[in-house]
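hiii so um. not sure if this is the right channel but i have a protein structure encoded as tokens and i wanna go backwards to a sequence. like what aa goes where. can anyone help
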């Protein structure tokens, strides 16, 4: 198999893992396939390219990790920024996309239609997931002064 095909399969399986509820793999496959068919019907572009563009647009580069520091009986929680590797960036972007698709205001629609609208919005930089990514990066930039004190 080619590398490009393997990358598409990996992204597809990551989406399945994030969509899966109580180990029910068939339902998450059905919702993803329905949303991909709707994407293909509604637009002239390839749906795989749209998903890739949406993931790239919503993937954050840095994140905040909380660490509990104990001094005697006192417990302090400090937040340290760190740079994400590519696997963690992709999985965090998929989480953001699926969370915003599940929390859509259009409640009468099914999850696969919300997922389709969310992927289209992400590819056009008009989504709530992108604002969530921007807020996360602003938060990590505020915690930048602690970056030199901790290595992960």
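sure thing!! here u go:
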């Amino acid at each position: 198999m080619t590398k490009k095909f393997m990358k598409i399969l990996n992204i597809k399986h990551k989406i399945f893992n994030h969509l899966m509820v109580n180990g029910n793999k068939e339902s998450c496959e059905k919702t993803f396939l329905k949303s991909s068919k709707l994407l293909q019907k509604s637009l002239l572009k390839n749906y795989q390219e749209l998903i890739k563009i949406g993931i790239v647009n919503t993937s954050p580069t840095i994140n905040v990790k909380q660490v509990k520091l104990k001094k005697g009986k006192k417990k302090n929680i400090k937040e340290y920024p760190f740079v994400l590797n590519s696997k963690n960036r992709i999985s965090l972007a998929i989480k953001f996309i699926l969370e915003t698709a599940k929390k859509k205001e259009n409640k009468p629609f099914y999850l696969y239609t919300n997922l389709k609208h969310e992927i289209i919005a992400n590819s056009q930089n008009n989504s709530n997931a992108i604002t969530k990514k921007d807020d996360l990066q602003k938060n990590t930039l505020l915690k930048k002064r602690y970056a030199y004190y901790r290595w992960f």
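oh and The CA atoms of residues 135 and 150 lie 22 Å apart.
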